[in-house]
Amino acid sequence: MRWPAGIVARPLAKSDVDALAVLLAAAEAVDHHGTSFDADHLIEELDTPYLDLALDTLGLWDGGRMVGCAKVWSRPGVVDVDRVWIDGRIHPSWRRRGLGRLLLEWGCARARVAHAERHPGVPGKFQGRCNATNESASALFTGAGFALARCYFGMERQLSLEIPPAPVPEGLRVVTFDPAYDEATRMAHNEAFRDHWGSRERTEQDWRASVTGSRTFRGPMSQLALDGDQVVAYVLGYDHGEGELHVGFVGTRRSHRGRGLANALVSRVLTAAAVDGYAVATLGVDAENATGALGLYERIGFVARRKTANYSLEM
């Protein structure tokens, strides 16, 4: 890969998180992608079992300043298609110089190799995403042959607003997350999301590392619905700093859908968050979610603030 004069390209290291945070903050001020640039959170993102920093990441440097970055990643547990994600950012002052196109080319080349190494027996797809209003990023993807595959809404709700109570269906009980139910929650998640676009089976290692083992996971801000000892629905909360509780995962087993469980659990999580001093709750939802999640969140008081476009290209 030939980079412009003055640009040094090398893999990211954990020691780069401060420079990476500065880059992401500058890009976020223009792109409004919803990216976190907290250094501790970035270290956790880089320290995952499915990311090889030496092969799957790249930082672009202009002297001592990081002006671009990219990472290629996928998770284990392929259901039908191995979707390999290519995430990249360019500092606003370095845009329109071809760096974004070069990063995408690098990402596609790495994604193709990673797919062949990890999941050669199933079809592969390149995946990318950007704010739906980012015309230049959208043009970058479509110019490379990507097509719009899915849109997601970033939603938020002020916790100062009244939180209406929601009943728990008869015969079921709701409990605050307990590590004793961790594996049962993972099993419930895998079943609940088996019919969702782009979902994967979460392995024990992946689940422990990035879901309930995440530094930002908050058990007291998470709720489970039990039918006997089986977890049939769950809502998991994450501390995103500055008074924000992020509702990261919401799921209901297919056998228990249509009974208001998501409503009941989300209501309890919001109430707990408000009592604990959080100011706002956020979440992301598939615009085409077949379970009607978007309408549910709107009824609970969430408002869409951002729309993310996912682009896809078959390998």
From TrEMBL:
<keyword id="KW-0012">Acyltransferase</keyword>
<dbReference type="InterPro" id="IPR000182">
    <property type="entry name" value="GNAT_dom"/>
</dbReference>
<dbReference type="InterPro" id="IPR016181">
    <property type="entry name" value="Acyl_CoA_acyltransferase"/>
</dbReference>
<protein>
    <submittedName>
        <fullName>GNAT family N-acetyltransferase</fullName>
    </submittedName>
</protein>
<feature type="domain" description="N-acetyltransferase">
    <location>
        <begin position="7"/>
        <end position="164"/>
    </location>
</feature>
<keyword id="KW-0808">Transferase</keyword>
<feature type="domain" description="N-acetyltransferase">
    <location>
        <begin position="172"/>
        <end position="315"/>
    </location>
</feature>
<dbReference type="InterPro" id="IPR050680">
    <property type="entry name" value="YpeA/RimI_acetyltransf"/>
</dbReference>
<dbReference type="Pfam" id="PF00583">
    <property type="entry name" value="Acetyltransf_1"/>
</dbReference>
